[in-house]
Write a structure and sequence with these properties.
InterPro entries: Na/Glc_symporter_sf (IPR038377), Na/solute_symporter (IPR001734), Sodium:Solute_Symporter (IPR050277). The protein has one domain: Sodium/glucose cotransporter (Up-down Bundle), CATH 1.20.1730. The protein has 20 helices and no strands. The chain is an all-alpha fold and 508 residues long. Helix 6 packs antiparallel against helix 7 and helix 10 crosses helix 16. The termini are far apart.
């Protein structure tokens, strides 16, 4: 009982500190949408780097990924540590820089606003926002599911899953409503440094207890010889490449990441952050995933439905340190979820509420107050529904995260074409966005196949295409549809093909 109280006290103290940072940020936040959602586009290199880093760190980083390394080997490092570190860094600059230029000129806050203006289509703006919110839902649920599991593992079941997940959900709702992007970014920076430091201390502590990295690896080779050679686990080249591309492309379209492209203070900030990104990714994912792999050789017993990191630390480190690492994991989940809810509220108010209520993009005091209320209600409803879903969804953290990543990935190619190819038409965008989403959705939502069967349609689709995942094939479908339909159709009268001409925009 004393250990449980200590562990919960450490986690609680961390949450209080995070809330205090949010309160300070609230006092400095201007009462404008641009400041609330984007911190007035003033983020510097360190803050932008760490807020993006911490926002991407989730329950998967500390639980799902190490669990996968524990069961199938550490090759996942190739996906997350190397390939995604590099692929996303390139996309960050190629797409992020262009979005920053366009957003700075036109004052865009969301991806939907940008595309809606480019193609003169309110409907496209709504479709992009709706698709984003649909895929955001399972990823928010992933954080809540991870939080519940973390508390259960930390307290050996003394605190039930629903209490842990529910408590974190309430905290997130309160924090997002209070702090805005400035508070989220500041807290993310502290969280990122906190998590990075803890994971390396954990590696040092465990390895010192077992005789060093060489001994831990020798034990792994003895117990699981397939884990120490490439191709020995569940991974094939097609699987590794498909997953790496899907995750990197998906991350680029995550609302909470995509909006950070608009928030950079300058071009120099973007260049520095994308150059430092692969290094930061390796510094976290290599130790986290290797801990999971080494645990397989150390004979660590993981409870059914539990996670390997808490189990490993429980055997080799003191109770208080295990609680600190779990607090770090909780920080990862909160730094993802608070940004998701903030971005989700901006998509809800600016891309759904405004056009669907006919209020346009005009801003006045009454509109701002009404939208603020809609945003906060939306955050509460969205977070509550995802919490309820987390209680009843049987999928693992890996499965849930992969579904969301690949769903967002379907947007990347149409958006890239819209930014760089003036030949892209409104019809081409509709075909690429909707077509790829339908293709991927038929593979991951059995209910769609059931509905098709009711109408006599054979929608039994394969789980892979010559080893390539439906997510990666869907990206190619989006490319073909966007290009083909654009070549076959003329631009609508309301489209602005010069909207993304950025000559003359700040290029410092």
């Amino acid at each position: 009982m004393a250990d449980t109280a200590l562990q919960l006290g450490i986690v609680g103290a961390y949450m209080v500190v995070a809330l205090a940072v949010g309160a300070v940020a609230y006092r400095l936040t201007e009462r404008t949408a641009e400041d609330y959602y984007l911190a007035s586009r003033t983020l510097g290199t360190v803050v932008l780097l760490f807020t993006t880093f911490a926002t991407l760190l989730s329950a998967f980083t500390f639980f799902g990924g190490p669990n996968l390394a524990f069961s199938a080997g550490p090759e996942w490092i190739l996906v997350m540590g190397l390939m995604d570190g590099i692929i996303f860094a390139v996309l960050w600059y190629v797409l992020g820089y262009k979005q920053w230029l366009v957003g700075k000129r036109h004052g865009y806050v969301t991806l939907g606003e940008m595309l809606g203006d480019r193609f003169g289509s309110t409907a496209l703006r709504v479709v992009v926002a709706a698709v984003s919110l649909v895929w955001l839902f399972p990823y928010v649920m992933l954080q809540q599911k991870g939080a519940g599991q973390a508390i259960v593992g930390l307290t050996n079941g003394a605190v039930p899953f629903w209490v842990g997940a529910g408590g974190i959900t309430l905290f997130m709702i309160l924090y997002v409503a209070l702090s805005g992007m400035r508070g989220v970014a500041w807290t993310d920076t502290l969280q990122g440094l906190f998590m990075l430091s803890l994971i390396w201390v954990a590696v040092a502590w465990v390895l010192s207890a077992v005789g060093g990295a060489g001994e831990a690896t020798a034990l792994l080779a003895s117990e699981e010889p397939a884990f120490v050679g490439l191709g020995g686990g569940l991974y094939t080249p097609q699987y590794i490449i498909s997953t790496a591309v899907s995750i990197a492309f998906g991350v680029t379209m995550f609302p909470q990441i995509n909006q950070r492209f608009f928030a950079a203070g300058s071009k120099k900030v973007l260049k520095r952050t994308f150059a430092l990104w692969p290094v930061l990714v390796l510094l976290l994912f290599v130790p986290a995933f290797m801990l999971g792999a080494w645990a397989a050789g150390l004979g660590v017993t993981v409870p059914e439905g539990g996670n390997v990191i808490p189990a490993l630390l429980g055997e080799y480190t003191p109770t208080w340190f295990t609680a600190l690492v779990i607090a770090g994991a909780m920080a990862a989940m909160m730094s993802s979820s608070d940004s998701m809810l903030l971005s989700g509220s901006s998509y809800l108010t600016r891309d759904l509420y405004r056009p669907l209520t006919g209020r346009g993009d005009a801003s006045d005091e009454e509109t701002d107050r009404r939208e603020a209320l809609v945003a906060r209600v939306g955050v509460v409803v969205f977070a509550t529904l995802s919490f309820v879903a987390s209680l009843y969804t049987p999928g693992t953290l890996v499965q849930i995260g992969d579904t969301a990543f690949s769903g967002f990935a379907q947007l990347t190619v149409p958006v890239a074409l819209a930014l760089y190819w003036q030949g892209t038409t409104r019809s081409g965008m509709y075909a690429g966005v909707v077509g790829s989403q339908v293709f991927y959705g038929l593979h991951v939502f059995p209910v769609l196949a059931t509905v098709g069967g009711l109408f006599g349609l054979d929608v039994a689709l394969p789980t892979a295409y010559l080893g390539w995942t439906p997510g990666i094939v869907g990206i190619l479908v989006g490319l073909v549809l966007t290009v083909t339909v654009s070549l076959m159709t003329a631009p609508a009268a309301t489209e602005d093909r010069t909207a993304y001409a950025v000559s003359g925009v700040e290029s410092d």
